[in-house]
C-alpha cells in the first residue's frame, strides 16, 4: 500500500485512518475527522498526535484542558493553530469541518499544548517553477515533540515541489531515517516516488502517498490547480531531524535558484486576522 486513494481507509469515526501497522512500518500515522457539530472521543495509545484544522474550527479536550482552535476556512485560506496530544491520553474533538491528526509512535510523554497560528514560520522555498510555500508548524526546531515532525506545503498551479527529488532512508551525518506520509488537498497533481518504491500517481483531495524509502519528488501541481500536501514524518533517531539527500542527478537544480526569483504568487497564505 503506497498510493492510498481517498476513502479507501475510512473506518468510523475516521474518514482516513493510517496507522504504523496498516502502513507496514513503525512510526508514522495520520487520521482525518470530518465533523458536523458532534464530538468524537478517542485514546492516543502509544502515539503522540496533533489536531490540525484543514477546514473549520473545533474544541479539543484532553487531560482537563480545553483548547479552542480557530482553524481556517480551507488550507488555501490561511495558516492554522493546532493542538498537541501526548501518548497515553484520552481526548475529545468537537467541531465543524475537517481535521487532520498527524501522529507518531513515541515513548516520551510531553504535556498537552496549544500551537498558535502566529508562531508558525512561513517559508518560501525554491525559485521559479520550483517555488512553493512551507508552513513549518511542527518542524524540529519549531515545536517540541518526541518523534513527530509535520509541515504543510502549498504549490501554485504549474509549479513543482518536493524538488529536487530527495530521500531520507539511511542514517548518516547528512541524512535521517524517516517514514513519510503525503496527504493531499486541491489538485489534480502528480506525485513521484522511485528508487525503492515506484509510484507515479495522480493525486487530489483526500489522497495519500506513503514513502517508506527511496527518492520522492516532484510533487507537481497541474497548471490552473493549486496543490496542498501535509507531510507527516517520524523515525528511530533519538533527535528529530528532517535531514535528506538529494538525488545526485538533480542536485544541481538547487544551486540554480540563486539566479532566479521566487514565484510572485507566494506566499499564498498567512495568518488570518
From TrEMBL:
Pfam families the record matches: KduI (PF04962)
Q: Which UniProt keywords apply?
A: Isomerase
Gene Ontology molecular-function annotations: isomerase activity
Give the matching CDD domains.
Answer: cupin_RmlC-like
Among its keywords, does the record have Isomerase? yes
Superkingdom per UniProt: Bacteria
Q: Protein name, please?
A: 5-deoxy-glucuronate isomerase
Write down the species: Streptosporangium longisporum
Source taxonomy: Bacteria, Bacillati, Actinomycetota, Actinomycetes, Streptosporangiales
Amino acid at each position: 500500500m503506497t498510493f492510498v486513494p481517498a476513502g479507501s481507509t475510512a473506518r468510523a469515526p475516521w474518514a482516513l485512518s493510517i496507522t504504523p501497522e496498516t502502513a507496514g512500518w513503525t512510526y508514522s500515522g495520520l487520521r482525518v475527522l470530518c465533523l458536523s457539530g458532534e464530538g468524537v472521543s478517542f485514546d492516543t495509545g502509544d502515539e503522540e498526535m496533533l489536531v490540525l484544522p484543514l477546514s473549520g474550527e473545533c474544541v479539543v479536550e484532553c487531560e482537563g484542558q480545553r483548547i479552542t482552535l480557530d482553524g481556517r476556512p480551507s488550507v488555501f485560506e490561511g495558516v492554522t493553530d493546532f493542538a498537541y496530544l501526548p501518548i497515553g491520553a484520552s481526548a475529545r474533538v468537537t467541531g465543524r469541518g475537517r481535521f487532520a491528526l498527524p501522529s507518531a509512535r513515541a515513548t516520551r510523554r510531553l504535556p498537552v499544548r496549544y500551537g498558535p497560528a502566529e508562531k508558525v514560520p512561513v517559508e518560501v522555498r525554491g525559485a521559479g517553477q520550483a517555488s512553493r510555500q512551507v508552513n513549518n508548524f511542527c518542524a524540529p526546531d519549531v515545536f517540541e515533540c518526541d518523534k513527530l515532525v509535520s509541515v504543510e506545503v502549498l504549490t501554485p498551479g504549474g509549479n513543482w515541489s518536493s524538488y529536487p527529488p530527495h530521500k531520507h532512508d539511511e542514517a548518516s551525518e547528512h541524512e535521517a531515517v524517516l517514514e513519510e506520509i503525503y496527504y493531499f488537498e486541491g489538485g489534480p497533481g502528480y506525485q513521484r516516488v522511485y528508487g525503492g518504491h515506484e509510484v507515479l500517481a495522480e493525486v487530489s483531495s483526500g489522497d495519500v502517498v506513503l514513502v517508506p524509502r527511496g527518492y520522492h519528488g516532484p510533487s507537481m501541481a497541474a497548471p490552473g490547480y493549486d496543490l496542498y500536501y501535509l507531510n507527516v514524518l517520524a523515525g528511530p533517531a533519538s533527535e528529530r531531524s528532517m535531514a535528506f539527500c538529494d538525488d545526485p542527478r538533480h542536485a544541481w537544480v538547487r544551486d540554480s535558484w540563486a539566479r532566479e526569483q521566487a514565484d510572485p504568487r507566494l506566499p499564498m497564505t498567512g495568518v488570518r486576522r
